[in-house]
Amino acid sequence: xxxxxxxxxxxxxxxxxxxxxxxxxxxxxxxxxxxxxxxxxxxxxxxxxxxxxxxxxxxxxxxxxxxxxxxxxxxxxxxxxxxxxxxxxxxxxxxxxxxxxxxxxxxxxxxxxxxxxxxxxxxxxxxxxxxxxxxxxxxxxxxxxxxxxxxxxxxxxxxxxxxxxxxxxxxxxxxxxxxxxxxxxxxxxxxxxxxxxxxxxxxxxxxxxxxxxxxxxxxxxxxxxxxxxx
Length: 230
What we know:
With about 230 residues, the protein is α+β, with helices and mostly antiparallel strands. The protein has a domain at about 25-105 and about 190-210: L,D-transpeptidase catalytic domain-like. Helices cover about 30% and strands about 30% of the residues. The chain has helices spanning about 1-20, 25-40, 55-60, 185-195, 215-230, and strands at about 50-55, 65-70, 75-80, 85-90, 105, 110, 115-125, 130-135, 145-150, 155, 165, 180, 200-205. The chain is elongated and about 65 Å long. Mean pLDDT is about 80; it is low at about 1-25 and about 215-230.
């Protein structure tokens, strides 16, 4: 304890004598390095189709220190570990007719092999597809036919109304019936890290990248500017 205290007094004296306001520390350098790696990823060509992984952070990821953020405006998802971006990946959220609801959620169900009981296709008794994009609430199954639910591997449910994260086609734009589609390798990784109760935030802008608080500040600033000019 005496050595640490003496070092603290010495460092304070150095700051006072040299006029320095801060002393570099390993944690600060680590935070800067993590940010720099992620920033660099987002400057490369075609990054929106790619997956960013910080292997150092991923090696330390647990259900207790991890959270997911879904940014509907960018069609991107983040895995945040100890407050830093460990993964940045493409997603497909709900299209205009079935938008993914924004909010703060927790995973309430996990199922490796899951089929939707709402969306899928209707086939006839002979096995021919009668309705390719069926909704059980609106489309009737003909006599002798059956409903085949859409496959949703690595299902992580967020709401009781059928919204969740799962493997699916990602065309680079909103395309689902409200769920959050993931690439298979991403879904497998998230499924292995997250558990029931893990937090998932859905917003226009990922909180870790400046929203929604920063977006609100920007909107307030624009409003103030308009008032001043008027």
